[in-house]
């Protein structure tokens, strides 16, 4: 089921339809949140969710024996999942409302710019944080800090991810990675996705600090929407709708 959120600040007066969290996804959330990510489930640790925090966040894997599938998610100490910092990287030629202007670390391109151009048949030159719901996932750096490449466990660039924020769920794509401009951070999404989750108080310098957001990535080529996604969408909802069916199929794997 969907609920509607009016967000006038996004591309005119736009209604954002949030998916109610399916029962199996809520059960998955409730199961992994209080659990400790250890052993073979812990893929890589040593990450932070805030600049001044501690390196207690990890990339984790949960297998589903009945289907032979698995999913990748972020988990911190105790019952913490991840927060949601704001990413404004990519094509900002359509700034919408200026909220990305407060960002102090905006990059002119996302990690998968070339892949975006190929998937969109060059209809767009890169993801737009004001339009495309994307997740920053994976850590790349050359200074000896913690790194993790989701491709090493089968996650494909621009694959669909699920994001559970409170009583809402949205789909996004794996659109960027964390670099070396600070500690190895996790928990970040495009401004449009953060706005859908938490409202228009989100901006380039103000995210959601509570570590209660669940980011879920799915391995395999079948998680990549390719040309079926509306890469040339003019607003969040148009793109979200174009990846919803694929997202629904992917979250059905969770148990």
Quick check: average pLDDT? Answer: 91
What percent of residues adopt helix (DSSP H or I)? 10-25%
Percentage beta strand: 25-35%
The biggest sheet amounts to: 6 strands, mixed, barrel
The general outline is: globular
* N-to-C span: 19 Å
In quaternary terms, these chains amount to: single chain
Number of helices: 4
Strand order of the largest sheet: 6-10-7-9-8-11
Q: Rg from C-alpha positions? A: 17 Å
pLDDT < 50 stretches:
1-13
SSE order in H/E notation?
EEHEEEEHEEEEHEH
Record keyword descriptors for this entry:
255 residues, six-stranded mixed beta barrel, 4 helices, 30% strand
Give an overview in words.
The protein contains 4 helices and 11 strands, in the order ββαββββαββββαβα. It is of the alpha+beta class. The chain is globular.
Topology:
Layout (H helix, E strand, L loop, with lengths): L1 E6 L6 E7 L2 H10 L9 E6 L9 E8 L4 E7 L6 E6 L25 H7 L14 E6 L20 E6 L2 E11 L9 E3 H8 L9 E10 L18 H16 L4
Give a brief description.
With 255 residues, the chain is of the alpha+beta class. The chain has 4 helices and 11 strands.
């Amino acid at each position: 089921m969907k609920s509607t959120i009016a967000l006038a600040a996004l591309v005119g007066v736009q209604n954002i339809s949030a998916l109610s969290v399916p029962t199996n996804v809520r059960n998955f959330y409730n199961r992994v949140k209080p659990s400790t990510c250890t052993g073979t489930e812990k893929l890589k640790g040593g990450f932070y969710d805030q600049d001044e925090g501690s390196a207690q966040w990890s990339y984790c894997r949960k297998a589903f024996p009945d289907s032979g599938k698995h999913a990748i998610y972020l988990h911190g100490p105790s019952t913490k999942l991840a927060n949601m910092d704001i990413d404004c990287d990519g094509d900002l030629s359509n700034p919408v409302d200026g909220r990305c202007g407060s960002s102090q670390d905006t990059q002119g391109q996302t990690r998968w710019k070339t892949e975006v151009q190929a998937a969109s048949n060059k209809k767009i030159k890169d993801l737009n944080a004001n339009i495309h719901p994307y997740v920053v996932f994976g850590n790349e750096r050359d200074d000896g800090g913690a790194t993790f490449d989701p491709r090493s466990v089968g996650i494909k660039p621009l694959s669909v991810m699920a994001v559970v924020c409170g009583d809402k769920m949205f789909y996004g794509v794996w659109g960027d990675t964390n670099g070396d401009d600070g500690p190895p951070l996790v928990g970040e999404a495009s401004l449009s996705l953060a706005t859908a989750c938490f409202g228009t108080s989100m901006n380039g310098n103000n995210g959601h600090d509570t570590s209660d957001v669940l980011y879920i990535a799915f391995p395999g080529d079948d998680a990549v929407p390719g040309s079926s996604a509306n890469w040339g969408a003019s607003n969040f909802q148009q793109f979200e709708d174009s990846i919803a069916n694929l997202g629904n199929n992917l979250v059905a794997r969770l148990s």
